[in-house]
Amino acid sequence: MRDRxxxxxxxxxxxxxxxxIRNPATGExxxxxxxAGPDDIDxxxxxxxxxxxxxASTPVDERAAVLRRAADLIDRDADAIGExxxxxxxxxxxxxxxxxxxxxxxxxxxxxxxxxxxxETRATSRPEFSSVVRHAPLGVVAGIVPWNxxxxxxxxxxxxxxxSEEHTSELQSR
Length: 174
Description:
Number of helices: 6
Number of strands: 7
Distance between the termini: 50 Å
Order of helices and strands: EEEEEHHHHEEHH
Radius of gyration: 19 Å
């Protein structure tokens, strides 16, 4: 059985709203987890805001390396994570492992975009003007994903948020 708290700021924290996870096929108790409430989410965002300047100043190659390392760790443990995901959701084990391995590929994809700036130049109605669209980080946000693809959808939120953008510190100084 696994009991999980909230993982915030590198620490596992307990909370008041602990719930059970039961295997939908057998009814067996898989573990418990803490359901985050508004105060927990606010706390996590504040901790993230404190950590954000250090992450923004991390060199682009180091940030890409973190994403690749995360992908390697996910792949390394894909079978064990898949077994747990199957017990929690009732999803067939091959589907669970496929979802997890795809999540690792999402991290690799964003690591590969580390040096790519996504600025776009768009045509305007007047030839003497141009329009430049610059994508800038939003800062720290709280993301909520549905239950049906929890690993895959989590990866699609986390990996792009950690993706390196070379102009991040430049935008912050403006």
